[in-house]
Write a structure and sequence with these properties.
This protein is α+β, with helices and mostly antiparallel strands. The protein is 24% helix and 30% strand. It has a five-stranded parallel sheet with strand order 2-3-4-1-5, sandwiched between helices. Strands 6-28-27-26 form a four-stranded antiparallel sheet, with helices on one face. The protein has a four-stranded antiparallel sheet with strand order 7-8-9-10, with no helix packed on it. 47% of the residues are buried.
Length: 508
């Protein structure tokens, strides 16, 4: 960090605010164009345990929705709207937000300055994040932000302020133009035209917009649009987006979006699993639908005894399906063949244990049931006894088990780590994967190319790992990810509240 000389007018005062732990969480900067850019360039690039990261989000041309998406990205949450962002930060214990200083220049040049100011005022009232906003005094936006507790830096520069240039217009019905254009301009264009469907592109963009705005490559934007494009869209869009996404690392096999009728959308996803070419899809009401993994054709429903929400599905090799309910208790749906007595006794023992000590995550392989708990431990109940390991700091949020030459368990936690463990041995010392966000779902299976692992985090990021090759692909659909599954041929299925997507690694 350079010494606190007045390299920019107002720099000393602003740096004083940054280092004062008792200062208000909101600082208004007036009369100092360019100061926030200078501060971002001369500040820490990332937050360590005790350091604040500085995130520069220019407001020029942004709507309130576009601002919410950009801020959510920097704060490690997923938000479909400004209200969603405020709600996510108010209800989530998000250490990343507390360590981030948001630098927000040029509020006067926003596409919706009043709505953006209202969002920033709501965030300031939460007290979870520090904001520095460049605003012009005497404007309605200044008055709105000044209603709460704030500091002010007035550098009173004499240089004339220039109005920002107009962003070029975009042809919002042309998928190639939309994918290649400045995403801020695309978002603003769609927000300003609520009555125009643009063949279905507008709905798809607004559904996946947070990820689309963060994507640097037009091919990735095309893939993101394709994944959430409903079957009522202009039929010319799908082949056009397939061509535009040809350079992406993923290939989309199929997608089912809310409102689709042929085949129908299976509903919001609460839990997912794959079993012998069939997907088991639990919705928020507890219904478990069966779909063909190859094309999402409906195959019926699972007749199960659970009332209320199903939080985890664990198919066993003999066709039995184990379910974890929202109270952390185990239920069993019989498979095609009678279970051997020893396996029946095993599941009965696990069920009795979870009645006394509720589980938070569930997986199963031949002869073994794996359960996570709220204290960070994973328990592998097997025919040879019980193995346990303390793998996480805080709640275990997901587990997956792989039936391979040496069976192993993967677990994910509220601490954001994914760990590998072979019951009866010491856990691997380093995480298999890790992000500064809780893990929400895991799925793993053995494939002809070795074991694969799918992971979803609460910040909307999904990864597909080839475990033995130690490589992975990343995908962000935009909305929050509720669950993932992996098929026997290594495909990734991603469940959202309003879409179900099958992706495959592109091989050529």
């Amino acid at each position: 960090m350079p010494s606190v000389r007045a390299e920019r007018p107002g720099a000393s005062a602003l740096l004083g605010w940054l280092t004062d732990p008792e200062a208000p969480r909101l600082c208004l900067v007036t009369g100092a164009p360019g100061l926030l850019g200078w501060l971002a360039a001369h500040g820490p690039r990332a937050a360590g345990r005790h350091r604040s990261a500085r995130a520069l989000v220019p407001l020029t041309g942004r709507t309130a929705l576009g601002t919410a998406w950009a801020l959510a990205d920097h704060l490690g949450v997923v938000a479909a709207s400004p209200a969603d962002l405020v709600r996510a930060l108010a209800t989530t214990d998000n250490g990343r937000a507390a360590r981030t200083v948001l630098l927000l220049p040029a509020l006067h040049a926003a596409a919706e300055p009043g709505a953006v100011a209202a969002l920033l005022a709501d965030l300031a009232r939460l007290g979870r994040v520090r904001l520095v906003v460049e605003v012009r005094p005497g404007t309605p936006e200044y008055a709105l932000l000044a209603e709460g507790r704030f500091s002010e830096v007035d550098a009173d520069e004499s240089a004339a302020e220039q109005e920002p240039p107009e962003r070029p217009a975009v042809e919002l019905s042309d998928p190639a133009a939309v994918c290649a254009a400045d995403p801020v301009a695309v978002t603003t264009g769609y927000v300003r035209e609520p009555g125009e469907a643009h063949g279905g592109l507008r709905a798809a963009w607004l559904r996946a917009g947070q990820a689309l705005c963060a994507a640097a490559d037009p091919a990735d934007r095309a893939l993101g649009l394709l994944a959430v494009l409903g079957d009522g869209a202009d039929p010319r869009l799908r082949p056009a987006l397939e061509d535009l996404s040809a350079q992406a690392a993923w290939r989309m096999r199929w997608t089912r979006v809310t409102g689709d009728v042929a085949p129908p959308w299976p509903g919001p996803v609460a839990a997912l699993a794959a079993q012998d070419g069939t997907l088991l899809v639990a919705d928020l009401g507890g219904t478990v639908r069966l779909l063909a993994a190859a094309d999402a054709r409906p195959l019926g429903r699972l007749d199960h005894p659970v009332t209320g929400r199903v939080t985890a599905l664990a198919p066993a090799p003999d066709g039995t399906v184990l379910l974890l309910d929202e109270r952390g208790r185990l239920h069993t749906v019989r498979g095609r063949e009678p279970r051997p007595p020893y396996l029946r006794r095993l599941t009965e023992a696990v069920s009795a244990t979870l009645t006394r000590h509720p589980g938070t995550a569930l997986a199963a392989i031949a002869g073994s049931v794996v359960v996570g708990d709220r204290l960070g431990s994973v328990h592998a109940f097997g025919l040879t006894g019980l193995h346990q390991a303390a793998l996480h700091s805080g709640r275990v949020t997901a587990v997956a088990a792989v039936e391979s030459a040496t069976p192993f368990v993967c677990s994910g936690g509220a601490d954001g780590a994914v760990r590998r463990w072979t019951p009866g041995r010491d856990p691997d010392p380093a995480p298999l994967a890790e992000r500064p966000s809780p893990v929400v779902s895991l799925a793993a299976t053995e494939t002809p190319h070795g074991p694969v692992l799918g992971v979803a985090w609460a910040d909307g990021t999904v990864e597909l790992h080839r475990v033995e090759q130690a490589d992975h692909l990343t995908y962000r659909p935009g909305p929050p990810v509720r669950a993932v599954a992996v098929t026997a041929d290594g495909a990734l299925v991603v469940g959202l509240e309003d879409a179900l997507i099958r992706l495959e690694r592109r091989t050529g």
